[in-house]
Structures are given as structure tokens and as C-alpha cells.
Amino acid sequence: MSGKNIIFLVLSLFIPVSLAAHYLEWGDLIVFGTACLAILPLAAWMGAATEEIAVVVGPTLGGLLNATFGNATELIIALVALKAGLVDVVKASITGSIIGNLLLVMGLAMFLGGLRHKEQKFQSVVARVNASSMNLAVIAILLPTAMRFGAQTVSQQTLQHLSLAVALVLIVVYALTLFFSMKTHAYLYEVGVAETVEEEHYSKPNIWLWAGVLLVCTILVALESEMLVASLEVATSQLGLTALFTGVILVPIVGNAAEHATAVTVAMKDKMDLSLSVAVGSSMQIALFVAPVLVLAGWVLGQPMDLNFNPFELVAVAVSVLIANSISSDGKSNWLEGVLLLAAYTVLGFAFYYLPVA
Amino acid sequence: MSGKNIIFLVLSLFIPVSLAAHYLEWGDLIVFGTACLAILPLAAWMGAATEEIAVVVGPTLGGLLNATFGNATELIIALVALKAGLVDVVKASITGSIIGNLLLVMGLAMFLGGLRHKEQKFQSVVARVNASSMNLAVIAILLPTAMRFGAQTVSQQTLQHLSLAVALVLIVVYALTLFFSMKTHAYLYEVGVAETVEEEHYSKPNIWLWAGVLLVCTILVALESEMLVASLEVATSQLGLTALFTGVILVPIVGNAAEHATAVTVAMKDKMDLSLSVAVGSSMQIALFVAPVLVLAGWVLGQPMDLNFNPFELVAVAVSVLIANSISSDGKSNWLEGVLLLAAYTVLGFAFYYLPVA
Amino acid sequence: MSGKNIIFLVLSLFIPVSLAAHYLEWGDLIVFGTACLAILPLAAWMGAATEEIAVVVGPTLGGLLNATFGNATELIIALVALKAGLVDVVKASITGSIIGNLLLVMGLAMFLGGLRHKEQKFQSVVARVNASSMNLAVIAILLPTAMRFGAQTVSQQTLQHLSLAVALVLIVVYALTLFFSMKTHAYLYEVGVAETVEEEHYSKPNIWLWAGVLLVCTILVALESEMLVASLEVATSQLGLTALFTGVILVPIVGNAAEHATAVTVAMKDKMDLSLSVAVGSSMQIALFVAPVLVLAGWVLGQPMDLNFNPFELVAVAVSVLIANSISSDGKSNWLEGVLLLAAYTVLGFAFYYLPVA
């Protein structure tokens, strides 16, 4: 049993602990902390189950499954928070996921990978296509915020209309991206997939077993998310944190922990192409799929969520995208580049920590 | 006769129709619409005539002609609008032309080219030189706008002085760019020119005939522009459009239609180098030549035009330049990249549509 | 004796002249001008002495010396100005040094180098690593300024805390960068060093002689800086210049003159790798070492200096970094690219000249 699996097993003990903390009323801070920890192994198992099922159902349907469930944890937490009316936390968690994937995950992968390997190379076409899609998606979701620069007063209704229009465009683009990667240009993606599969599978997995795991984990994630969201406001204010900091830094670390673990693990095995695909691909899914789904869901749930972010979030995301592009454009990485990304994340974290509530 | 020529012949029927609409007072909306359509074939014929004459007079003078008349339609419409005092529309049409060339034209070229050809390559040195010139030109024309970030109140006179100084620097840079491309580094540009020429010419064209065509078309474009500008305000307000949207989206589509057609046509013939040269080169000419000429003309005409744009235009142009660079840096394109550019243009279009009047 | 050395000898006459101007009270304008000119040869000799000593003490300690004394002139002027309470001038000189190195120095190097050599190539890995470090450092020092976009009111204390936190992160990153370049990845930097050394040295330099030169020059630079700073405010207001323009344009030209001369000289000898290393490396040192040291020094000296710049400085630096990246990414340069960089610097200079005092 690998070290990673032992950690996840230990963390899974927090599932009953968090339930106890909730029902025995041990206080919001403990509920929040244990729910955060309990979600980590569940997210990892959901990811594993999705990949196993994807292998059995074949590349097309499997790819669709991966694309839809890839950010399932993130999406479930966000939907629960949205239903509870924490619109600001949900919006912050979108930009936080993008920043976290590009700086924290990529940074840790390059740093820890670089400690073992003097220079790591990556050249995947997939990473490039993802990067272009991500740039455009990120720009699109930030446009309503940028409108502030153009007019002093933009009505709430205008922002809502524009956000819905942007969300629809993004979902169409996402569907076309899937069509591109599974049908017209599937050959570009074959190397990456083969690499993943080869390592993990020696016998055909039992689809019903894994479907059961996926179902149970999804239900448990939703349950833990409910407790996390219910205790979030009291717990974070006890810790002296703003809603913005919680949404941008804390929630995405919990929601994306599974991708973090994968990206770092494969980077240490010198598979940087796969590592960057996970980090960049996850950012892209957040911007092209999760964000627009949340806008539409907010509209349906009666919790209107526009894409009007705090302008500093716009700056932070723009900066992260520029760095990610600059690093990925030379096709090589070393530990220092990882340090630079982590330093950028640290500095952004300080800024979000100190940023006063508007 | 090619399909393109048939379309232009049909569109040329709108020349008499627009004149009739104007003199018989069929209403501003009809005058505006027919004048827009009438300009399209005239612009195409002006472009064709310029290229024919350029072949006869030799590379140096021909290059100069192409460089000066390449955006003649755009320039004529803008000068007429400037004389009529529509300074905001003129300014918006400058940024709109840059955005339109980089996102709409490049996007359509990559999308339609990519539907026919799985992957299209381009590597021209010319495209790179143009891109660098364009980046710097774009930055220069946006600086007066960016000054707003540095000081709450910048006097109109300061902006006017700065805009004139920037305009003079840009015209000097433009002259040096022509000197570079025709004298010191002409060899870099030979491939592209040869490619164009080879396809179009089998016999030496009659220079007097084409000079006549150029003259007649220029007069007609100016005439149609007068009608377009005179009817613009009433027509667009009847359509519920702001001056900003009209200037950024509508006017550039009419003014740049000829380049659009060329860039898309050659992309479908898998000549992506030429296609991108047209799109990027046109943006560069707008920023390095058309914009400064308009600033100087405004000063002469007593319609002082500074380079103080709506800040959202700055965001939109910055975004377009970043995307164009990101796409052109990998030297390859496919239909999805075209979709992404078109999606970005669509989303920007939505934003300009919803942007309230300041 | 080379032409460069003759110029420096002539300029060194301004050392006694500036002292005379100061003690005989010839007026602030003359003191300021002569002190500026007197600093130029002193900075050049400090640079030469540092390099000579570095050769003797070996690569590790020598590298550390070069890294620490590389921007010594800049740092001394800034510390003197900081002690005198000219915090705004010091802050402006930080961004001005970055802009000046990336646009003015790189531009002059490419322009003058390009006049002699049709096309110049550069491909150094070092330049790339430096560029990534610089991007991140620049982003980090600009973050406190960017916080303004996120909140209308940020308290002075918050900015001070954030600036100190950022300064500490940057100094750690700087130390790691040195560790990277001298220990773990020293082989990447060997080519560049060999190239410099080879040209300059045929016999082992006398370390005590050069240490004496370094000491004397440092003392004289500090003395001239005192006079320069004492006369700065009156002199520049007599010239009609704002503190911002003085800090962004004038001070960095004086402080970085030695690097300017080196970068241009080696570019004319077609050693573009070395030339760009100097320009980009100097920017990186300013952002990673000089700026954080000044923040900490300001805290110690009781002249609290935060990293809250004029927002237009943020725009100017962002623009300069984008251009430098865009130019350096294709690995080639010609005289036109130099012109474009110089044009960008000229236009930024106009903007800073016209920018009203906030």
C-alpha cells in the first residue's frame, strides 16, 4: 500500500469525527476543520473511481465522465455554498481554484519534482491547447469585472444579463473543446491518456464496484460540504479571516486536494506533461465549466450569482495566467521555478489576507 | 468569375440604392444600412487596384502605396466622421479595428481554414516583426488612457499635448518600419510578397486603368462615408446601440471588410502565413499610421482628438493582443483555436453592448 | 586606452568640480548636474573593481560579490535619499530602474548592435531563468499597489505590513536564486561567465589594489549622492520636473549608467546573450534585492517605505515586462526592435513628464 493511500485512510477517520462534531455540537471551528479534512480522501476516491469507470466505458464516454466529474468536489462544495447564499465565497473560490492550480499545484509539482530531477521537460501539445482555452476562458469570466473600468455605475441587472450570456458562450466552447479532444483531434490526446492508464491498470476493473464507490463518495462529499458550509462563516471569523480569503485560499485547497496530490505525485516520477495537464486542465475546467454552471445554477436556485469579482481577484488571476504561460512556454522546469511560483502564491496569499473588506 | 466577385457585384447594387435612399429620404436607418453594404465592394476594389498598381511601379514605391492605401477605407470613414465631430465614434473605431482584426478576422481565418485542414502551420518572420511593432504601437496609443490610473484629474490640454507627442513618435516609428521592410531587411518580406503575386498575375496590368478604378472607388467611398456618418447617430439610436458599440463593433466591420475577406480566403487555401500577415499587419497599420494621422488631422480640422479611450477599451485591446500573441507563438492553428478567438470576440461584443454610457 | 575609458576619465573631472560647486555654493542646479556626471565614472570603476576581485576570490564568493555590489550605486543613492526622507523619489527610482533596463538599455543595445550586425541571436538559458525570476519579482513588488483595485481604502499600516512581508519573501527568493546559480545549477551559468572573463583578463589582478579602488569609489559615490540628494528637490523644480519624473527617469539613468555602458558595448561586439543578461539581470536584482532591502532599511531608519507605487508606474512596469518578454522570446534582434523599445521608453517618458502630481 502506497504512502498516499495510508494518508487517505487516516484522513478518512475524520468522516465519522466530523459527523460526531456536528451532531454533538463541538463547536463550528472543529466541525469546519474536520469536515475539510474528511473531504480530502473522499475527493481522491471519487477521482480514482471516475478514472476506473472511464477505462471500462471506453475513451469517448470515459472522457466525458472525466471532464464532468473532474472537478466534482469543487462543484458540490460550491453548489451547497450557493444554496446557502454564500455567493461571495463561491465567486472567490472560482478565482482561488484558478490561482491555486496555476501557482500552488504547478509550483509544488515543479519544486518537489525538481528536487529529485535536475531538469524536467514537458512538451505536450495538450498542455498548449489547454493553455489557450484557459486564457480565453479566464478572460471571459473576468470581463464583467473589467466593465467597472469602463463605467462608474453598472446596474446589477446588466451584470446579471452579461454574466448569463458569458456563461452560455463558455458552455458552448466547453462542449466544442470536448468534441475537439474526443473526436476531431483525439490523436493529440492519446499519449497522455496511455501514460496514465499504463501505470494504473493490469486487470479490467469492476465497473459496478467503482460506480458504487463513486455514488457513496459523492453523497458523503455533499454531506461534509453541508457541514463545512454551515460552519464556515463562524469558524473563519473566529480565525480572523475574511470571506474573500476563505474563498480564495482555503476552500480551493480543500476542493482541489485530489488534483494537487496527483499533480505532485506524477511530477516526482518525472511525468511533467501529465502533471501540468492536470494543473492547467483543472483550471480550464473551472473557468469553462464550473463557473458557468454555477452562474446558471444560481439563477435557477434564486441566488443570482454574477461574474463581478473583486478587482484584485482580476489582477491576481491575470498575474497567475501570465506566470503559468511564461513558465510553460520554455518546456523545461527546475526547482527554482517551483520556488518562484510558490513565492508568488505566498505573496498573493498575504495580499488577500490583508485586503480589507470592501 | 469567383464566388467572391459575384458577391461584390451584387453588393455594388447598393451604391445606387444608398444614393436613392439618401436623396429620396427613405430614412436614416435605410441610408445607414445601404451605405454600409455599398462600401464593402468599393473597399475590395480599392485593395485590388492598389495591389495591381503596386506590381507595376516596383517593390519600393508599391510597398509604400500598399502601406498607405491598405487601410484607406477605414481612414476615409474616420476622417469624414471626425470632420462631422463624431470624435468618440472615431476613437472607438480605432480600438475596434485592432480588436476586430486580431479576434474576428484571425478567428474566422483559423476556424474556416481549420475545418478544411486538420492543422495549419505558419512561421513567417514577418508575422513576428509585425507582432512586436503592433504590441508597442498598441501600448503607445493606450498610454494616455492609462494615465487616468496615475492621477485623478488630467486636464484636457495635457491629454491633447501627450496625444500629439505620441502621434509624432508613432509616425516616425512607422516610417522606420517601412524603411526596415523595404530597404535594410527587405529579404525577410520577399517570400510573402512572391506568394501573393504569383497567384494573382499572369500579365502585366494596365496601370492607368487601375489608377482610374482607385480614383473612382476612393471618391465613391468618401461619398458613401458622408451618408453613413450623417445617418449614423439616428440610425444606431433607433437600433438601441450606443456610440461606443457602434464605433467598436459596427464601423470596423464595414471598414475592414476587404481585409476580412482576403484573410479568410487565403486561410482556406492553407496560406496561414499570408492570412495572419494581413490580420496582424492591418492592426499594426491602424495603430502606427491611422491613429496618429487622425490625431494630427483632428488638430488641423479643429476637432481635437486625443487618445483618451474608454478604459474598458484598454482592457479589451490588451486582452486581444495577449490572445493573438499566445496563439501566434506556437506556429500552429486548428479550428478550436478559431472558435476560442471568435468566442472572445463574442463575449467582448456582449460587454460593449451592455456597457452603459459613461 | 579605449574610448570608454577616456570618457570616464574626463567625467571624473566632475568629482572635484561638484565638490567645489557644493562648498562654494554655486547653486543647486549646478551641484545636481555635476554630481550626476561625477557618479558615472565612479559607478563604472566600482563595477570593474568588483569583477576583478570576483575573479580572484573564486566563483562562489565572487558571484556573491557581483550579486551584492552589482547595483551598489543605485542602492547607495537610494539609501541616502531615503535617509533624507525623499521616499517618493526612492520608490520611483525602483520602477524607473526596471523600466530603464528593459526599454532604454535593451533598446540601445539592440539598436546600436543592430546597426552593425544585420541580425543578432541570443539563446542563453540564463536569460530565461532571469526573465522568469524578474517577472515574479516585479509582480510581487507591485502587489501592494494593485490592492488599491480591490479596496477603496487600505490603511497605511496594512500597506506597511504587507510590504515588509513581501520584502522578506523576496529576499528569501533572492538567496535561493543565488544558491541555484552558484550551487545546484552552476553549469547553466558557466558559458556566460567564461565569456566575460576570457575577454578581460590575461594576468591575475592584484586584489588589494582593487579592494582599495572599490572602497574609495564607494565612499566617493556616497559623498556625491549626498550632494545629489541635497540639491535634487530645488534643482528639479527649477527645471520644471516633478518628483515622479525625476525618480523614474533621471535618477535611474545616473544610477545604472555603468550597466548601460556595458550592455551597449558588448551588444556592438555581437555578444547579445551577455548584453541581455546584464539588462535583465540588473532589473531582477533591483526587484529581488534592492527594493526589499530599501523597504527593510526604511523601517530601520524610521522612514517607513511601503511598496505602494503610483498606479501608472504599475502600468508602465507591466508594459515594459511584456515587451521585454515578447522581444526576448524569439531569440533574435535587429535595429528596428531596438527602435521599438526606445520608442516605448520615449512615450513612457512623455507620459511621466505630463503626469500631474496626484
TrEMBL record, chains A, B, C:
The species this protein was found in: Tolypothrix bouteillei VB521301
GO cellular component terms, semicolon-separated: endomembrane system; membrane
Gene Ontology biological process terms from the UniProt entry: intracellular calcium ion homeostasis
Record-linked InterPro entries: CaH_exchang, CAX-like, NaCa_Exmemb, NCX_ion-bd_dom_sf
Family, as annotated: Belongs to the Ca(2+):cation antiporter (CaCA) (TC 2.A.19) family.
Record's protein name: Ca(2+)/H(+) antiporter
Main location per the UniProt record: membrane
Gene Ontology MF terms in the entry: calcium:proton antiporter activity
